[in-house]
């Protein structure tokens, strides 16, 4: 369906796709003002089939050899997809990106496709991870959403790659590339994210056994001559089910990441971050209760 207005927008985004600034007639295109869109993610306004690839497009923009032009299908407020020419550049602040969308897509239909980008797995926060999971399942009909698992994968050899680098300085980089290639194959809707160095979170179908994922990672390491001991693979899984509520999803993501504590890793979920303050408050309350009790006894 042809639109009566011109598609000409300029977005300033962070690495997760959150809108930091926008210029253009957003009301006609997206049903919201530019001010209302600031702080939201651009991803829901991208055709569902291209969202995962757009995340990878953003992730590769810091590379000197980055692809900076492609075709992107934007979903309008009328829920129709409109082909736009995407042109990107790095923003003035680290981790920010300028994205320009124009109507020139028809003339430049051969500019490239997002699906073919050799981009790295995105590094995300816990909040961004939840948002990506929600979007991965939100637009599928209930009967098309498979039971899903969320698996936290720790590669000890990448968290501390000293032993691997001692064999060959290039090995950690090659291992990371092979690990990420394997995980992308197993990911549901391409949702596989880097939380910290060597620590990945993978959304996958329940039918994809964790043992099979582990076997793929071990084979990738063995191809590079890296032993299972040096790989130091740990995996922990929680069951998301078919379509968890937002509160349930937050609890399950936190649970999955908190499981890392069993391996002695530092974690940065809100629960763990504010735990010292919580316990300090509890301790202070106990001291006051004891003091009041002693006063009454006297």
From TrEMBL:
Instruction: Tell me the ranges covered by the PAS domain, including all copies.
Output: 11-58
The domain of life for this entry's organism is: Bacteria
Instruction: List the SUPFAM superfamilies hit by this protein, alphabetically.
Output: PYP-like sensor domain (PAS domain)
TM segment ranges: 277-297
UniProt cross-references to InterPro entries, sorted A to Z:
PAS, PAS-like_dom_sf
Keywords recorded for this protein, A-Z: Membrane, Transmembrane, Transmembrane helix
Keyword Disulfide bond in record: no
Know the name of this protein? PAS domain-containing protein
Species, as recorded: Dongia soli
